[in-house]
Amino acid sequence: MPKLSRLAKAGLVLLVLSGTLASVQQGTALANTREPGESALPLANPPKPYYVAIGDSYAAGDGLAPYYAGTNTKQDSCRRSPNSFATQLKLPGQTETIAQEAASGKATFKFVACSGAESTGITKAAVYAPGTAIYANNAAEKVLDDRHTTDWGQVQSAAAAEGLQVNGEPHNTDALNKDTTLVTIMIGGNDVRFADVLKACVLKNCAADGFTMTRGNNVKDPDPLAVMEPKVISLLKAHLEATFVAIHAAAPNATILVAGYPLFFSGNPLNKSCRAGIAVFNSGEEKLLNAWGTQLDDVISQAYNAYRLKFSIKYINPLSAFSGHGICSKDNWLNGLIAWTSGNANKVPSPASFHPTKTGQAAYAKLFNSCLADLPKCS
Predict the structure, then answer these.
(1) According to DSSP H, which parts of 16-126 are helical?
(2) What does the pLDDT read at residue 71?
(3) Max alpha carbon distance in the chain (Å)?
């Protein structure tokens, strides 16, 4: 394909990442989760597996069509795919996935991850508002939310409802409950504006000295991107903590598995430009994006660590598994910028842009299944 001009690429990146993770008896592994050093006796009647998959486009499997009915329309762009890692999870000792068991009535599987979701689309507890711990402890955030440099000043969806909240769909306030045994979640990439950042790096040299980003909402950052983005990522921790606490409150008997994000680019040092589909990133941009990706995973891990001794929550770090499989590698598990348009609901660029491939989703499933197989040692 001919190299596109920066201006031509604008139409192709307008919506990048708009939507921009043992016992033979089922349920025993989750019901007997204890901190290391604690004993766990088998239950005579373990609970029926009840799994809820929540999060953003990485959790939904965006870009891997066909999607489940009703999730790829003008009214609903959650784009949940049967190729998501969520459909591939198995409990230890089982031959079928939880999704397959649910189809035959042996388990419950609620797949409510949605492309574009932010923490404030999961629970209103993540909103920066008076009376919350976030508001009390992060005064510096107020000016950013007020000017819409960040999105945490309001619930992401139009209607506010406690519990799980999915864009374009009814509020799934009953998805999480006391019967839930397992929750997986990937969240944070949209909170820290990665769709806007990727667009900026495709259209301009975002690594240039003093480069300042203007978001898709036409709000210009108050500081250069090299200063602003790390600041935003650091503020995410409080919102993730509020999200994890809200999930536990809604599903007190569930084990929560939190997954981080892979880095976009492979190679160290990154010393040459990278053609990512129809986009080209210079080495400076690659280093910046990887640095911010590393910081994002660190913040997710920190939020997990704040509660790992208070309830059953585990962190899955994908960096080692995805090493050597970045956007520009020969065996890439992440897509670059892909131009594609088809049908009424699909937009340019392809939702697959900057998202895991089918192999990448399978790699995530392997990480989750390995964690489930040995929960005491996981993370």
Answers:
(1) 28-31, 57-60, 98-103
(2) 86
(3) 65
